Structure formats: structure tokens, C-alpha cells
Amino acid sequence: AKQAGRNGYSIYDTSMRRRAERALAIQRGLHAAIEDGSLSLHYQSKHDSATGAIVGAEALARWTHPELGEVPPMEFIAVAERSGQIGRIGEWVIREACRQIGAWRGQGMAPLRIAINLSPLQLNQSGFVDTAARIAAEAGVDPALILFEVTESIAMENAERTRLMLRDFRERGFEFAIDDFGTGYSSLAYLQKFQVRQLKIDRFFVQALDEGGPEARAIIAAIIDLAHTLAIEVVAEGVETQLQASVLRTLGCDQLQGYHFSRPLPPEEFERHCRTLMVL
Length: 280
Ligand code: C2E
Ligand code: CA
Ligand code: CA
Ligand code: CA
Known about the structure:
The chain is of the alpha/beta class. It has helices spanning 5-36, 73-83, 86-106, 120-124, 128-139, 152-157, 159-171, 188-194, 203-208, 214-229, 242-250, 267-279; strands spanning 39-48, 54-65, 69-71, 113-117, 146-151, 175-181, 198-201, 233-236, 255-256. The longest helix has 32 residues, at 5-36. It is globular, with a radius of gyration of 20 Å.
């Protein structure tokens, strides 16, 4: 970097400063976001691979900043983790998902298991299990209707601690999924000890199916076999094409999720999507 010279440094400083300013604007905006309703959840359906029926949905956070416009969840979640706001936001996500489950029940919709993403800090927060249980109880929602998604790399970071956490959650009746599976390094022993309900095959492998080589197919087949041996359901995420869907179905993948079926939708559009599929 020493050879970069004066201009190199100043360009570097400028982009650094812009990034820092953007992060600060996001942090400030998030402060108000929970109260002002600018934070919302979209829902993306998970489909039974054999019948195409909707068997669940993943809640994905959406946020429009007053000046910056739509900020991707990866970005504002990362800011919230650094600024210590993740606790409040994470609780809001659970409360909002529970409220929505109750609202759908009130409309007579068949109950769907809703997946909620957890960030590493939430998983490590002491008392988080109690908080989640309290929020569900206050909303009158059966914890079995909530499935928390945790990425493989985070689950494996401290596998023994994760095992104990998951046990606590299970004792309260919550379900778990290991997200982005295949990108980290799970030990078979832990996968069994975690007693999760689902493994979600990372989008990377699903997209690699299009390249036609045998590798992606073999890896997915191996993951499915492994999971089924442990009585774990397998969900493929990021399914974008008919071809991917049919290969995954052939390989015995239990559930499919992705743009081929539906994008993440705001609640009213999600309801319409559910109704459309039911009359088919
Ligand atoms: P993720 O949990 O792996 O979620 C899947 C991402 O893939 C979502 O991006 C989803 O919109 C996108 N996706 C779904 N189907 C397809 C497809 O067919 N093709 C492609 N290319 N993409 C697809 P999104 O909504 O931008 O979320 C990104 C990440 O942000 C999530 O990754 C998750 O890690 C995080 N996130 C989102 N909402 C929350 C939340 O409420 N709490 C926490 N802690 N993290 C969240
Ligand atoms: Ca997820
Ligand atoms: Ca994922
Ligand atoms: Ca991901």
C-alpha cells in the first residue's frame, strides 16, 4: 500500500469515509425504523418438492431508509450487529412474524411453519431463548410453528455451545434449520447431536446444477443421503429454473425454495400466492 502514493491514499480515504458515513446513516435510521414502520418482513414460500404445495415460508427483513432507499438486509443486519442494535431488531422480527402468524390464523389460512433467520450475536445472547419463548407465548403462537435458521459456519464456530443452545430451544418447542449448508465444515457427529429439523442446501450448489457437470449433483445427492440418514429434511434454496427443480426432485430433496416458485413477497401478496396455489 506504501507504493499507492498520495492519490491512492486519498481515494482510499474517500471511499472509506463514504462507507463509514453510510454505516452511520444506517445506524441512525435503524434507531427509528422499528417504531416508524419502515422495517417489514417479506415471505418466501417453501414447497413440497413432490406436490408443489406450500409447506412453509421464510421471513426476510426489508427496510427502506428515508434517504438511502432500500437497504439490503445483509447490510443493515451487519450494521446492527456492530452497533448493538441487533437485539432489538431481532426481537422485532420474531414479534412481527408471530403477529403475522396470528393474523393469518384469524383469516382462516392453514398454519404454515415460518422460518426466521438468526444472526450470530443473537444466538450467543444470554436469555435469548427465554425472550423468544416469551414473545411467542404473548402472541399465542405455538413455538412449533417457528423454525430458526442458523448458518452452518456460525453453528460450527462453537459447535458444543450451539448444541446446548439448540437443546434449550427444542425444550421450548422451537424448530431449527442449518442454513447455507455445504459451505462450512460440519462434523457428522455434531450434525446428529444438533437434532435440527432441516438442512438448507446453499444456493451455490443449486446454481451449479446448470453447469451440467456431475460434481454439484453428486454433492447434493450426498447431502440428501446424509440428512435422510439422520432423519433431517432437506430444503434447496435459490431454485430458479425448472431444470434445477426437477433434478432436485429426482435426488429426493424434500422442499424447494426460490424464484422459480416465488420471490419473497409482502404479506398480502404472499396470501394471494397461497390462494392461487390452493385452487390449482
Ligand atoms: P439467507 O437466509 O440465505 O436468505 C436467502 C436469500 O436469497 C434472500 O436474500 C432471498 O431473497 C434470496 N433468494 C431467494 N430465492 C432466490 C433465488 O432463487 N435466487 C437468488 N439469487 N436469490 C434468492 P435477502 O432477502 O436479500 O437476504 C439476504 C440475507 O440477509 C439472508 O440470507 C439472511 O442471512 C439475512 N437476513 C434477511 N432477513 C433477516 C433477518 O430478519 N434477520 C437476520 N439475522 N438476517 C436476515
Ligand atoms: Ca435463511
Ligand atoms: Ca440461505
Ligand atoms: Ca446466505
